[in-house]
TrEMBL record:
One of its GO terms (molecular function) is RNA binding. Signal peptide: none annotated. Residues 30-146 form the MI domain. GO terms for cellular component: nucleolus. It is found in: Nucleus. InterPro entries: CWC22_splicing_factor, Initiation_fac_eIF4g_MI. Its main location: nucleus. PANTHER family: CELL CYCLE CONTROL PROTEIN CWF22-RELATED, NUCLEOLAR MIF4G DOMAIN-CONTAINING PROTEIN 1. It comes from the Eukaryota. GO terms for biological process: ribosomal small subunit biogenesis. Keywords: Nucleus. This is MI domain-containing protein.
């Protein structure tokens, strides 16, 4: 299928065209530009991973890959699964990528109020995909202040959790087990319960009736049904 393909891939143009695109995207350093070209000139996520490997990046520069990846994912008009597939592959290859995603996503959570809707939605869907694939641990959510979300943050987490609820039961089940595990960050499970009750229940009732069953299961499994 088309999942994991770049919309343009190598056909998107020559390296010089991609370099000018990188400048338009305000990717100012040479490292970021070369990362952008490696990603956007690839045919699919496996090819992109290989191209990034050939750049010979130092360990510290892997954080730059993550920043460019999140930037590109957010800049697309609509969500493209290519970026999450590439991100999951990178996270599986080096733990530096997992750490870098933690910090980059935490920065993204802080900047949500300035993010355009499409960037917030694309990033939320990418995060959901990484959680479902267990490419990132649930502790990436530990910094979220579930009791005190801004309007844009509420939108972001609604999009993310709708993606999670729409996933196959086994994938969502694994995530719930991780949220309930003794080693999960303190307060994380309770925070997600609060969010499910306050934000997801009304949303599902109004516009996403198709998610009623998985939401009920999530709330039951997290103990959110006990008020």
């Amino acid at each position: 299928g088309g999942a994991g393909r770049r919309a343009g891939g190598a056909a998107a143009g020559s390296e010089s065209r991609l370099l000018s695109l990188a400048s338009e995207q305000r990717l100012s350093t040479d490292v970021r530009k070369s990362i952008f070209v490696a990603i956007m000139g690839a045919d699919d996520y496996v090819h992109a991973s290989e191209r990034l490997g050939k750049l010979g990046l130092k360990r510290a520069q892997r954080a730059e890959v993550v920043r460019v990846l999140l930037h590109c994912c957010g800049a697309e008009a609509g969500y493209n699964a290519f970026y999450a597939l590439l991100a999951a592959r990178l996270c599986a290859s080096h733990r530096e990528y997992r750490f870098a995603f933690h910090f980059a996503l935490w920065d993204a959570f802080k900047a949500l109020d300035e993010a355009p809707l499409h960037r917030a939605a694309n990033t939320a869907k990418m995060l959901a995909a990484l959680l479902l694939r267990a490419a990132l641990p649930v502790d990436v959510l530990k910094v979220v202040r579930w009791h005190d979300l801004t309007e844009r943050a509420r939108f972001f987490w609604q999009v993310c959790f709708c993606e999670l609820l729409a996933a196959p039961e086994a994938e969502l089940g694994r995530l719930v087990v991780a949220l309930c595990a003794p080693e999960a960050a303190e307060g994380l499970r309770d925070g997600v319960c609060v969010f499910a009750k306050r934000e997801l229940e009304p949303l599902v009732r109004k516009t996403r009736r198709d998610l009623a069953t998985p939401l009920a299961r999530l709330m039951r499994d997290l103990g959110a049904g006990v008020s």
